[in-house]
């Protein structure tokens, strides 16, 4: 599918053709390729605040935010200054450094985890967390939910089997059946399925892993008490509750997704994973949890886990500076921007007669465009997220892109706002919405 555009895109198109010759699909992470919406991805030359500039000189208000990390906006002067100073001191030593301690202390102060270990990606964080859960419990089975993405860990790249309480099938070629034989995939928000799986396999389950509030099927909120129920069910059966906050951590609220329910209801995950915002746009991620569990990691304990660049001084400096700047005022601003944009998008879609749902999790939101006549009142799981009208989203996306607004190039994603989305950026988005809504209706 080619997408009409009134903007120059020759340089992006040329780079994409060259990239495709030397890199599969022309991209280094699949969703960047515009496969779900058609057309040519824009190659970005620079970014400042809320704005991206592509190699053809087009400017866009960015509502992707590098898929979450850029809470403060792009090239925040204090983050850049701190990173430049860190780079000038050397980029990696392979020894312990002070920024790692400071960032770990900041994470411990904001979340219920008592100790953390850094990794370079969210994928490594979830992979390490489930290894630790298996090591700690001496059990093998991992329970996850359909539509939750935890990175490209073999055991977690699994699809639901045919029955509810059956073991999973690999979600991609290259993952052997044996890698997912110990993974069970359940429908999200389905307490009965969780109870059934624990009734049948409870003594084999090492952990339940879930996104704190799923964002990888679009924002799908846990029904009230669902995370608390998972925590209690795990505790009752001697399994661990792993809350994946790679996306929501330090983003949905100051205390992440946990700030939306756990901090209010008083439950605590056994292990948590973090990434994105805590790296400030550089590769840093972490997993953490109860002190006794984390003490099982090598070199203190027997569960092996490591990384050449883990806790890298430049990345941890970027993350530390970002978190220190992410004050209550920042979250209030990002929240207000999310409200303004999501309400305006909903109004424009309503005006154009496009059925849709807006779902929010703190500062994060998604807009699900539905088929005419759809009776869906909320998206509660992956099956319902699949009821979106994908051609309508593709038309909406391209109309917004042509008007200078870069939305996520997939209907199953979060729209990310930042502290740098000021009045000018927000008004630019609002001005683009009515025509894009009409395009979605066509
Ligand atoms: N967990 C969640 C909830 C995510 O959203 C992601 C990435 O989007 C990951 C894990 C994997 O993180 P990374 O892409 O840094 O490996």
Task: Describe the fold and architecture.
Keywords: Cytoplasm, Isomerase, Porphyrin biosynthesis, Pyridoxal phosphate. Homodimer. There is one protein chain. By secondary structure, the protein is an alpha/beta fold. The chain folds into two domains: 177 residues, Aspartate Aminotransferase, domain 1 (Alpha-Beta Complex), CATH 3.90.1150.10; 249 residues, Type I PLP-dependent aspartate aminotransferase-like (Major domain) (Aspartate Aminotransferase, domain 2, 3-Layer(aba) Sandwich). The protein is 36% helix and 15% strand. The protein has 14 helices and 15 strands. The strands form four sheets. A seven-stranded mixed β-sheet has the order 4-12-11-10-9-5-8, sandwiched between helices. Helix 2 runs antiparallel to helix 10 and helix 13 packs across helix 14. The radius of gyration is 21 Å and the shape is globular. The chain starts with 9 loop residues before the first helix and ends with a helix. 52% of the residues are buried. The model has no long low-confidence stretch (mean pLDDT 96). The protein binds pyridoxal-5'-phosphate.
């Amino acid at each position: 599918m080619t997408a009409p555009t009134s903007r120059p895109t020759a340089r992006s198109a040329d780079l994409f053709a060259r990239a495709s010759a030397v890199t599969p699909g022309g991209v280094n992470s699949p969703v960047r390729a515009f496969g779900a919406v058609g057309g040519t991805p824009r190659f970005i030359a620079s970014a400042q605040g809320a704005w991206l500039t592509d190699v053809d000189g087009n400017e866009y208000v960015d509502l992707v935010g590098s898929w979450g990390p850029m809470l403060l906006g792009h090239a925040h002067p204090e983050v850049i200054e701190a990173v430049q100073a860190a780079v000038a001191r050397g980029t990696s030593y392979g020894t312990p450094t002070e920024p790692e301690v400071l960032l770990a202390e900041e994470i411990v102060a904001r979340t219920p985890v008592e100790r953390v270990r850094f990794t370079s990606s969210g994928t490594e964080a979830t992979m390490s967390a489930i290894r630790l859960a298996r090591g700690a419990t001496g059990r093998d089975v991992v329970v996850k939910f359909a539509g939750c993405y935890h990175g490209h860990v073999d055991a977690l790249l699994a699809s639901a089997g045919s029955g509810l309480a059956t073991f999973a099938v690999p979600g991609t070629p290259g993952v052997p059946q044996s890698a997912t034989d110990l993974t069970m995939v359940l429908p999200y928000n389905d307490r009965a399925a969780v109870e059934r799986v624990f009734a049948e396999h409870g003594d084999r389950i090492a952990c339940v892993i879930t996104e704190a509030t799923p964002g990888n099927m679009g924002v799908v909120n846990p029904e009230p008490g669902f995370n608390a129920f998972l925590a209690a069910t795990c505790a009752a059966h001697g399994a661990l509750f792993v809350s994946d906050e790679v996306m929501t951590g330090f983003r949905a609220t100051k205390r992440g997704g946990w700030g939306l329910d756990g901090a209010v209801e008083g439950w605590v995950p056994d292990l948590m994973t973090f990434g994105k915002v805590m790296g400030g746009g550089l590769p840093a991620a972490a997993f953490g949890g109860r002190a006794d569990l984390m003490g099982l990691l090598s070199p203190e304990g027997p569960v092996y886990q490591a990384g050449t660049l883990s806790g890298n001084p430049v990345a941890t400096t970027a993350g530390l500076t970002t978190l220190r700047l992410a004050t209550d005022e920042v979250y209030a601003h990002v929240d207000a921007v999310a409200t303004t944009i999501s309400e305006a998008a909903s109004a424009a879609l309503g005006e154009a007669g496009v059925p849709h749902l807006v779902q929010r999790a703190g500062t994060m939101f998604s807009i699900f465009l539905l088929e005419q006549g759809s009776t869906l009142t909320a998206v509660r799981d992956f099956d319902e997220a699949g009821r979106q009208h994908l051609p309508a989203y593709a038309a909406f996306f391209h109309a917004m892109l042509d008007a200078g607004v870069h939305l996520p190039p997939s209907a199953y994603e979060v729209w990310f706002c930042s502290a740098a989305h000021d009045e000018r950026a927000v008004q630019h988005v609002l001005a683009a919405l009515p025509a894009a809504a009409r395009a979605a209706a066509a």
